[in-house]
Amino acid sequence: MILFNRMLESKIIVVLYLGIGLALTSCASTKPPLQELAQTEAVINQADQVGAEEYAPLEIRQARKKLQRARELEAEEKYDEAKRIAVRAEVDAELAEAKALSEKAQNAVHQLRESIRILKEEIERKQ
């Protein structure tokens, strides 16, 4: 009787593990992350338009590499992983865009200050 109970317990445990495993694998996405890939590509293009290649080359390069990897994973039907990598690529592209805009703004401030300095010199010379 004890042996029968242990065998029954073992079978129940195996069935539970199989059920959990099946549940976990069924949670994997079966839908390609096409929207995420397209959105990431759009953010990368937007970052390029504001000068990310010049002002944040490392970040934009990382974004492109991650997008390429996400596309490869999507082709391999590893949709969940592809989606995660695409989101990371989008964050890198957003950082590149922010750095580019910040650098451009700092350059504009520097040019404005230089113009003000030159105007002050001209005013002082005329007085």
List unreliable stretches of 5+ residues.
Answer: none
Mean of residue pLDDT? 84
- The termini sit apart by 112 Å
Task: Tell me the number of structural domains.
Answer: 2
Strand content bin: under 5%
Q: SSE order in H/E notation?
A: HHHHH
Overall geometry comes to: rod-shaped
Oligomer: single chain
Question: Using only CA atoms, what is the Rg?
Answer: 28 Å
Helicity, as a percent range = over 70%
Major pleated sheet: none
Structural class: mainly alpha
Number of separate helices: 5
Count of DSSP E strands? 0
Highlighted features:
single chain; 127 residues; mainly alpha; rod-shaped
Task: Kindly summarize this structure in a few lines.
The chain is an all-alpha fold.
Description:
- The chain is mainly alpha-helical and 127 residues long.
- The protein has two domains: 1-30; 31-126.
- Helix content is 88%, strand content 0%.
- The chain is built from five helices and no strands.
- It has helices at residues 2-26, 34-49, 52-55, 57-75, 79-126.
- α2 (34-49) runs antiparallel to α4 and α4 runs antiparallel to α5.
- It is rod-shaped, with a radius of gyration of 28 Å.
- The termini are far apart.
Helix and strand topology:
Elements (H helix, E strand, L loop, with lengths): L1 H25 L7 H16 L2 H4 L1 H19 L3 H48 L1
Helix pairs in contact: 2-4, 2-5, 4-5
